Amino acid sequence: MYNSIKLSENVHWVGVNDKETDLFESLWPLPEGISYNSYVINDDKVALIDTVKINYTDTYLEKVKDVIGDKKVDYLIINHMEPDHSGSIKSMREAFPEMKIVGNAKTMNFLEGFYGITEGTMVIEDGDELNLGSRTLKFYLTPMVHWPETMMTFDQKDKILFAGDAFGGFGSLNGYLFDDEVNIEYFEDEIRRYFSNIIGKYGPVVHKTISRLRKEIDQIGMVATTHGLVWREDPAHIIDEYDKWSQQQTENGVVVVYGSMYGNTKIMAETVARSLSENGIEQIRLFDVSRKDISYIINDIWKYNGIVLGSCTYNTEIFPPMEYLLKSLESRNLRNRVLGIFGSYSWSGGALDRLKDFKEKVNCNLVEPVIESQFAPSGDILEKCYLLGENVASKVKENN
Ligand code: FEO
Question: Where does the record place the Flavodoxin-like domain (predicted)?
Answer without folding.
Answer: 254-393
